[in-house]
TrEMBL record:
Entries under Gene3D superfamilies matching the protein: Glycoprotein, Type 4 Pilin
Membrane topology of this protein: Single-pass membrane protein
Compartment(s) of residence: Cell inner membrane
PANTHER family: GENERAL SECRETION PATHWAY PROTEIN G, TYPE II SECRETION SYSTEM CORE PROTEIN G
Protein name as catalogued: Type II secretion system core protein G
Domain Type II secretion system protein GspG C-terminal, chain residue ranges per copy: 42-150
Keyword set, alphabetical order: Cell inner membrane, Cell membrane, Membrane, Methylation, Transmembrane, Transmembrane helix
Organism expressing this protein natively: Marinomonas ostreistagni
Transmembrane segments: 20-40
Signal peptide from the UniProt entry: none
Domain of life the protein comes from: Bacteria
Keyword Transmembrane helix: yes
Amino acid sequence: MGNSFKVSRFKPFKRRKMGFTLLEIMVVMAILAMLVALVAPNILSRSDDAKVAVAKTQLRNIVSALDLYKLDNGNYPSTSQGLQALVTRPTGYPEARNWKQGGYLPSLPKDPWGADFLYISPGAQGAYDLLSLGSDGREGGEGDASDIVSRAL
């Protein structure tokens, strides 16, 4: 019989080139949905923790700048002068006699929720009160909505 007869009972499998079937796409989507359902809550709760940590770091930086301001000028800025006194030379009382050229901060940060930090001088419990009102922007609250106060750092 020899090699001249080359008919094979098995034909090679030809792969379709039409793309994915609807079933394949639905299975992948279901797997992705399950992964998102498992992972998303952990990531989102960590985002709130990270914002609180950033707010505390920003408060520490502002406290350091306020302490330098006091060393140079003998007092903290008044409530009316506000935290802006750390960026631009303040006017009014108390006078900033030895205000550092260039300021104590390059700019005033906003808290991680986009609000201004609150500054009151003299404060209720010391030289000044410096705080972020948290995610809800109101006094009090719990979790990431609680106030973050510089004296508690």
